[in-house]
Write a structure and sequence with these properties.
With 261 residues, the chain is mainly beta. It folds into 2 domains: 2-55, no CATH class; 64-259, Fumarylacetoacetase-like, C-terminal domain (Fumarylacetoacetate hydrolase, domain 2, Alpha-Beta Complex). The protein has helices at residues 72-77, 151-157, 161-165, 210-218, and strands spanning 2-8, 11-20, 23-30, 42-49, 55-56, 64-68, 87-91, 96-97, 112-114, 116-122, 139-146, 149-150, 170-171, 176-177, 188-193, 196-202, 228-230, 238-239, 245-250, 254-259. Strands 1, 2, 3, 4, 5 and 14 form a 6-stranded antiparallel sheet that branches. The radius of gyration is 18 Å and the shape is globular.
């Protein structure tokens, strides 16, 4: 299943997304956030192309957890050693940004970078996942995150809260896929800046694979349904400027596109 979250006259609502003749359409409003119910009951709506839908972030996470330096080539390009265990940080929920909405480049920073990533939507309350347990049972679906980063502030501060936490610094979407399974079939992550390919990586190259991340994190932190986990970015990060457009593409999810102002 694919679903998105849209603006309606009655307020924000989740909606099912279907493919027709090679194009994605929004055609049925869902009765609840999909990770909160085992059924996807809803009401029909006048179908509209996903590209024309008034999209919101397709998630409402209680927390956004990110993994730093989870691709060897990205760690190398930043001049850092390969982590020996997952390097984690938070982005605030206030940094969430809808597909198509503008990334605001803060005047306080002299360099702001894109970072395209595969992200996990948690499906059930998770604490102390054991090696013998199937991590996939805890995953509701997958989406795309662009981990926008004020690189100069990241280096200046040492810890990353300010550099990663500005409003608009977490574009997410355009949809969530509940059928994708990168734990068995790797997916590619590609980022384009103004149409030029800048990043291309595979989830097969993650230093810490998805099951290992969930075991590591859930050993000290309870993950709740709807929480968002960004798995890391491949090499090729670079700066963005007003007037640019950043597009992150993952087959099976689509393209997350945002302009920069």
């Amino acid at each position: 299943m694919l679903y998105c979250r849209i603006k309606t006259e009655s307020g924000p609502a989740y909606a099912e997304v279907v493919e027709r003749c090679g194009q994605l359409w929004v055609e049925r409003l869902l009765s609840a956030a999909p990770w909160r119910t085992e059924t996807f009951a809803g009401t029909p709506m006048e179908a509209i192309p996903l590209a024309l839908a008034p999209l919101l972030p397709p998630v409402e996470p209680g927390k956004i957890i990110c993994v730093g330096r989870n691709y060897r080539d990205h760690a190398a390009e930043m001049g850092n050693d390969i982590p020996t265990e997952p390097l984690l940080f938070f982005k605030p929920v206030s940094s969430l940004l809808a597909p198509g909405a503008a990334i605001e480049r803060p005047a306080i920073s002299e360099r702001v970078d894109y970072e395209g990533e595969l992200a996990i939507v948690i499906g059930r309350r998770l604490r102390n996942l054991q090696a013998s347990e199937d991590a996939r049972e805890s995953i509701h679906g997958y989406t795309i995150v662009n981990d926008i980063s004020a690189r100069d502030l990241q280096k200046k501060d040492g810890q990353w809260t300010r550099a990663k936490g500005f409003d608009t610094f977490c574009p997410v979407g355009p949809v969530v896929s509940t059928s994708l399974d990168p734990t068995t079939t790797p997916v590619t992550v590609e980022t384009r800046l103004n149409g030029d390919l800048r990043q291309r990586g595979s989830s097969a190259d993650l230093i810490f694979p998805i099951p290992e991340l969930l075991r590591y994190i859930s050993a000290f932190m309870t993950l709740e349904p709807g929480d968002l986990l960004a798995t890391g970015t491949p090499a090729g990060v670079g700066p963005i400027h007003p007037g640019d457009r950043v597009e992150v593409t993952i087959p099976g999810i689509g393209t997350l596109s945002n302009p920069v102002v």
